[in-house]
Structure formats: C-alpha cells, structure tokens
Amino acid sequence: MPYPEGHKIKVRGKIIESAAQAFRTNGIRDISVPVIMKGAGLTHGGFYSHFENKDQLVVEACRYAISDTIALLQQAADQEKDGPKIHAIIQYYLSQEHRDRREIGCILPALSGEMSRSSDEVRQVFTQEVQRMIDFIADLAQLDTSKASALLSSMVGSLVLARSVHDSKLSDDLLAAGKQYAQTILVA
What we know:
Blueprint (H helix, E strand, L loop, with lengths): L6 H20 L6 H7 L14 H26 L5 H9 L2 H5 L6 H9 L4 H22 L3 H20 L3 H20 L1
Helix pairs in contact: 1-2, 1-3, 1-6, 3-4, 3-7, 7-8, 8-9
C-alpha cells in the first residue's frame, strides 16, 4: 500500500527537526545518524532515501534551526510594547531559559566551535545563516551591518561562555554582563 501524498516530506521534516535538536544539544561530531533517526521515531535504514550524507542533513538542520530561532526572537520582539524591540531580543537571547534549553536554543553558539573543521558546503551554509541572523538584527533594530554583527557576536559569545562554566553564579553574571555590553553597542 503506497504512503499518502506528502508522507516523504513529513518524514524528512521530522528528521531535520530531530537533527536540529540533537546538534543544538550535543554538536555535530558527537551525534550519529542512528541517534538522529531514533529521535525522529525512525530506523536509521531510511536515512539515505532522504539525504545523501550527514553533511546534507547538517545543512538542512542549520537552516531549520536559524528559522526557528528567528521566529522565537521575532515573537519576543512582538511582545515588547514600550521600548525598542531589540531590547526584548537581547533579554531573551541572554536569558537563563535560552542558556538552559539548548535543544531549542540558537544553533550558532552550539556549532560555531565545530565549523572550522566542517566541510566547505556546511561552512558556506553556516556563513549564510550567520548573515541571515545579522540581517534580521539589523532590520529589526535599524542598525548598520557592523553594529548588528557586533551585537550578534557579543550575544553569541556571552551565551557560549555562560553555557561553558560550571559555576551557576558566574554563568548568570556572564549573561548579565552580556546584556549590559549589548546595550553599549546599541548606543555607540
């Protein structure tokens, strides 16, 4: 009996979503195709009917994860009623929730350290997705690309450090310092 129309697209979407969550949580190198497929509720045997290789999946997962992050940030911005919307984005991005929920968080802090050792194809798409985040911030905050790049770099770096340390007070202090520094970028 044939699968219903759109079945393959839905399955592919489940695999990409599973991969994005796994890569956000554990990085690329430490996650295998069988783990991703299991996360999607599938066996690993069907992977190659959807993707040529793991790199192709990484590319699709990066695109998906950045779209997801932009949607979350836009939602935070849309809830801001009084001040500039960029303040809501900074507050969300450098929040304890975003730090602690890696599986739904921004993929940039999760994968940046691995990108220099990734394939050209993966690095090219990652570069495009970083640019998409910069453009989103620039458009939302009405900043030039240089300031938007500095703001994104500061936020990603603050989040990486906050996630890296074992001391919860230091982690919270790093988030707070990141928020404070982000404000100085906006007024510079």
